[in-house]
Amino acid sequence: MSRPQLLQLAIPLVQTYGFTRAALSHSVFRLPKPHSEQLSDSAVTALFGEGNDARKTLIDAWLEDARQHMRASPSPTIKAILTQRLKQNEPVLQFLPEAFALLASPTNGLPPLDPLPALKHAGSVADEACHIVGEHNIGLAWYSRRATLGAVYAAAELHQLNSPSTVYDFLESLLDSSGKVESALQDAGTFAGYIGRSWAGIIKSRGPF
Amino acid sequence: MFASNIARRACRTNRPFRHCRFNHNQPTPNQNQESSRATHFGFQTVPEEQKESLVKNVFDSVASSYDLMNDAMSLGIHRLWKDELVSLLKPGARGPQKCIDVAGGTGDIALRILDHARERYADRETAVDVVDINGEMLREGFKRFKKTMYHNTPQIAFQEANAQALPTERFPDNTYDLYTIAFGIRNCTSIPDVLKEAHRVLKPGGTFACLEFSRVNNPLLSTVYDQYSFSIIPLLGTILAGDRASYQYLVESIRNFPPQPEFAQMIVDAGFTTGGMFEGKGGAWRDLTFGVAAIHTGVKV
């Protein structure tokens, strides 16, 4: 029995116990040969880390598991995949704000808040979605596509934390408007390119001055 | 000089002189089958059977000044290391625990475990069995415990036994919640056997913790550390304990111990579940003082 396997067993327990060390220590009750008592504190520390580090390990494992479940979406479109991912949040919705706060809180005092885990989370969901759909982007488009999808997903998830019932419509409206924003940005980029080249031509034709 | 000191001390045991030749015309007895399995004793190679008695002799001679020498060699930091080990394990946090401290002759870890359980959690039912192969070290531990409130209580017991083969009547299977071994495992002849015995006596869900000297990975610090180890420590042994060779052995045995990832793999091979194969939080080990010492943990699942 290895550590990743124990984490897999602990994930369904999050609905009952939340993202806590209790969920980790009760995971041994779901072994093929269950233990008679839950894991001791020192065992949880030895396997997953001290104090809140164990909870962060569990949260990371849960997020990874939710990303795996994105593949089970009914149709391979971005909208369906992101909807599937938002559905994963529903059983544990009340524990999620604390989980994200824990990810953002620093281990040693400074910096006061760490934005990286949130960006990594949105980025990896967007990356997984693009991979499942099979999009081929090259160059800067790779980054801009993932950035837009990450921003869309993050906004939808925040909306879900406050008002879970309207989130799927909100996601749809966001995806439509982001499509419009992307094409508008592309047009603006092309137009700026034309202007730039015209100016370059004018300056060259003025000759040495 | 080192080898002859050890040989002289080894001859104190009551072994027959069957390997001596009294006449140069006599053929030498066949020594090949005995030295076929060799192990390291510091930087010397010795037959496996001899290592146990050689280590016994080392610890017989250092027993009375063991604590003083630890303070001098590590500049008192060994106390911080042992405190870190016990505060990591938090004995007594969820009720009384049965603990076994192996190679813990002088009782440092056992005392810290009992004090932690008593002071933090008001737990007076946690019990520690101190096991050591060396009777002299156990006597020192017993003497130290006489000065504490745990003497003559069921919380502490001393037993002379070999960590590689704990007697099954005294140490049945699946008995203990916590197994600790601090600065002892490198002196054992066969580390996998010690780990197997640890796995046997621990309950399912029990924790294994090993505090041991380890490799310093930073090259600059490791040079400084080597200089300190090979020059100053044997010198301190001569001055404070009158025994350079034993402390030379101690320093050499540290260099021969496997590095952190290898030892973590040996723990996994013995059947334990550990953290990830990296150092630090949630990892199979954590370095103390840049890797001079390391705590390896595992859980019997």
TrEMBL record, chain A:
InterPro entries: COQ9_C
UniProt domain COQ9 C-terminal: residue ranges: 118-169
The protein, known as: COQ9 C-terminal domain-containing protein
Upper classification of the organism: Eukaryota, Fungi, Dikarya, Basidiomycota, Agaricomycotina
TrEMBL record, chain B:
Membrane topology: Peripheral membrane protein
The keyword Mitochondrion appears for this protein: yes
Species the sequence originates in: Rhodofomes roseus
E.C. code: 2.1.1.201
Phylogenetic placement of the source organism: Eukaryota, Fungi, Dikarya, Basidiomycota, Agaricomycotina
Top EC class for this record: transferase
Transmembrane segments: none
Full protein name: 2-methoxy-6-polyprenyl-1,4-benzoquinol methylase, mitochondrial
Family stated for the protein in its record: Belongs to the class I-like SAM-binding methyltransferase superfamily. MenG/UbiE family.
Alphabetical keyword list: Membrane, Methyltransferase, Mitochondrion, Mitochondrion inner membrane, S-adenosyl-L-methionine, Transferase, Ubiquinone biosynthesis
Quaternary structure and interacting proteins, as annotated: Component of a multi-subunit COQ enzyme complex, composed of at least COQ3, COQ4, COQ5, COQ6, COQ7 and COQ9.
Pfam families: Ubie_methyltran
Main location per the UniProt record: mitochondrion
Protein's cellular compartments: Mitochondrion inner membrane
Pathway: Cofactor biosynthesis; ubiquinone biosynthesis
InterPro entries the UniProt entry points to: SAM-dependent_MTases_sf (IPR029063), UbiE/COQ5_MeTrFase (IPR004033), UbiE/COQ5_MeTrFase_CS (IPR023576)
Catalytic function, reaction form: a 2-methoxy-6-(all-trans-polyprenyl)benzene-1,4-diol + S-adenosyl-L-methionine = a 5-methoxy-2-methyl-3-(all-trans-polyprenyl)benzene-1,4-diol + S-adenosyl-L-homocysteine + H(+)
Any one GO MF annotation of this record: methyltransferase activity
Task performed by this protein: Methyltransferase required for the conversion of 2-polyprenyl-6-methoxy-1,4-benzoquinol (DDMQH2) to 2-polyprenyl-3-methyl-6-methoxy-1,4-benzoquinol (DMQH2).
Positions bound to S-adenosyl-L-methionine: 106, 132, 162-163
One record GO biological process: methylation
